[in-house]
From TrEMBL:
<keyword id="KW-0687">Ribonucleoprotein</keyword>
<dbReference type="GO" id="GO:0005762">
    <property type="term" value="C:mitochondrial large ribosomal subunit"/>
</dbReference>
<keyword id="KW-0689">Ribosomal protein</keyword>
<comment type="similarity">
    <text>Belongs to the mitochondrion-specific ribosomal protein mL49 family.</text>
</comment>
<keyword id="KW-0496">Mitochondrion</keyword>
<dbReference type="InterPro" id="IPR007740">
    <property type="entry name" value="Ribosomal_mL49"/>
</dbReference>
<protein>
    <recommendedName>
        <fullName>Large ribosomal subunit protein mL49</fullName>
    </recommendedName>
</protein>
<dbReference type="GO" id="GO:0006412">
    <property type="term" value="P:translation"/>
</dbReference>
<dbReference type="GO" id="GO:0003735">
    <property type="term" value="F:structural constituent of ribosome"/>
</dbReference>
<dbReference type="Pfam" id="PF05046">
    <property type="entry name" value="Img2"/>
</dbReference>
Length: 173
């Protein structure tokens, strides 16, 4: 293969200067060996200075999500969950990011839309009745819902995510 490359350079000096000629190896035995990566040394510096380490800690992601700082109002309109919800017949636990667990499930190429309310604890049927009664005011058709007591979620046919979140914020859940 190398002989053919040399002959090409001798016979066609103009072409070899203007373009690069690549050699393709057709067998793994003909290809050149790879360098041993253990022999390569990467230079690095070890520092245990706390003054330098504080900048590294700022760049690292947090291992836990911090508790939100208690304020009267938040700029985004978000409200933390109150402690008085434990005395009620049902309770909706917030996610680890302190958000309300209400989701929109879109399937069948965007045709079918379901609202999912997860992490429901307590009397889930009472919560479903109150929610459907609230949502019925906004809909002309009857509200169809599916209650899964074992998994602790409710599936409602239609896009009622914003109305459900409004209902939960109004109830301080």
């Amino acid at each position: 293969m190398a002989l053919r490359h040399k002959l090409f350079q001798i016979l066609h000096p103009i072409l070899t200067n203007r373009c690069t000629y690549s050699i393709r190896h057709f067998c793994y035995k003909a290809s050149p060996f790879v360098e041993d990566l253990d022999k390569l040394n990467t230079k690095y510096e070890v520092s245990k200075d706390p003054e330098e380490w504080k900048y590294v800690e700022r760049a690292l992601p947090l291992t836990i999500i911090p508790e939100p700082v208690a304020k009267e109002t938040y700029p985004s309109g978000w409200k933390p969950q109150t402690n008085e919800v434990k005395n009620r017949p049902y309770f909706i636990e917030r996610t680890k990011n302190h958000m309300i667990p209400v989701y929109l499930d879109i399937s069948q190429r965007g045709v079918r839309r379901h609202t999912l309310i997860k992490r429901i604890q307590g009397d889930i049927n009472l919560f479903e009745k109150e929610l459907v009664k609230f949502l019925q005011k906004e809909s002309f058709q009857p509200i169809r819902s599916q209650v899964n007591e074992f998994a602790g979620y409710i599936r409602i046919n239609g896009d009622f995510v914003n109305a459900t979140k409004y209902f939960l914020e109004k109830k301080n859940l």
